[in-house]
Amino acid sequence: MAQERKIIAPLPFPETTPYWEAAAQGKLLLKRCAGCGAYHFYPRVLCPFCFNEQTEWREASGTGTIYSFSIMRRAEVPYAIAYVTLTEGPTMMSNIVDCDLDAIRIGQPVRLVFKPAENGQQVAMFTLA
Amino acid sequence: MAYIAGIYEHPTRKADGKSLALLHAEVAKGAIEDAGLSKDDVDAYFCAGDVAGWDARGTGPFSIIDYLGLKLRYLDSTESWGSSYLVHVAHAAEAIAAGKCHVALITLAGRPRADGFSTGTAVATDGLSAPEAQFELPYAPTVVNTYAMCAMRHMHEYGTTSEHLAWIKVAASHHAQHNPHAMLRDVVTVEDVVNSPLIADPLHRLDCCVISDGGGALIVTGPEIAKSLKHPPVKVIGAGYAPKHQMGGKIDLTFSGARWSGPQAFAEAQVTPDDIRYASIYDSFTITVLITLEDLGFCEKGKGGAFVADGNLISGVGKLPFNTDGGGLCNNHPSNRGGMTKIIEAVRQLRGEAHPKVQVANCGLALVHGTGGALGTRHGSATLILERE
Predict the structure, then answer these.
(1) Rounded to two decimals, what is the model's pTM?
(2) Residue range of the domain that includes B96
(3) What share of residues in chain A are helix, strand, coil (percent, to 5)?
């Protein structure tokens, strides 16, 4: 059960600091384009679909399903990397934590949790719902 | 139209005692000699991020040009990782057709093994200016676990199995037994592959390519020069290129950029997958081959498992002989970039110079595909179709 892996600290850009400040408060922010209405991930200032710069931060529901995953066996502490498809639409890279790694399956519902990186920054991850 | 008139593959697989610059020089000399030309004939040079000096501030490709003593009127340093060298062939053909140059030299070399890299299982923590880095590095993506997620999803959607993937390695090993330079020459079975240790589910150790030193080089020329040289002319008749990425979060791991680069190359060459007698397919992992074969149209999407099973990729046994040098899975993967050696083995097949045990009879048309970068995140797909004249 215990998966204490050293988490590499993210290096925010000036325009992504709201994402990381929200993460510190236990919130996952997504960008939604006011022009085309689509959510995207990872967050940009200019929408990657229509290049509109009217993109807005929205708080994600924190629910989704596992699109794909892999258990990294050749690591000091084995861990699960995954792509999680969020209820809002986009699929994001993440880790599946706090569960039996061998119980993870594609399609399983997951919910948002946060884990601290080496520098203390909270990072969005998921656990089996 | 242009021709591949010279090829050379470095015999080393562990280059202790040789610098990266020297490896580039040795492969350059080898390809120039294979073509029957001299260094002074070279007026164009193509290289990617593996060249010595690429990371030197302000010099980039000029360090290696200086070292090799080249006098050029054309330079292209397109970087597309392992697929770069296919792009270079296409760009060289265009430049030669436009009259910008006559004799193009393309080199690749690397010594990751001598340098002690464990590329596949470590998280690369450089490249922090990449906009995705902050959203990915905390999750510890590695080369192998991002490819593994492609395999996992393909299995989920299409019922592909580890045994299917294993057949790709089995075919490569059947070919490698005849290559005295190959790192892994033992023939393996499906059981050997699926019983080898899991590295990142569902990929086993034997689903992964080797890490090796070495390199290779090519000479590309126009028709007049190519036809005056000693080797059967190998013509570049089709080329396609497409990068694929995460599409703003609309991620689909079941296909590669080959879905886009393949049709471009087939349309230009005016041939179909059924016409291809030999294929060099980038094989960083077994799953890379399976997804690429589907995307190129050798079989329907989702049917790759059945297509590669039962030795269908083994020369003399199956319908589509592939990677008859043993490929990246068994022979070599210099600089962790397999595109160059894929081109070289295809040219050998078209010249009739492959090992007799793996030579495809009457091989007149070959396909080469390169996948540079990572299948599960961002990569550049390049396809070439080559014909013996």
Answers:
(1) 0.97
(2) 3-117+214-233
(3) 10, 40, 50
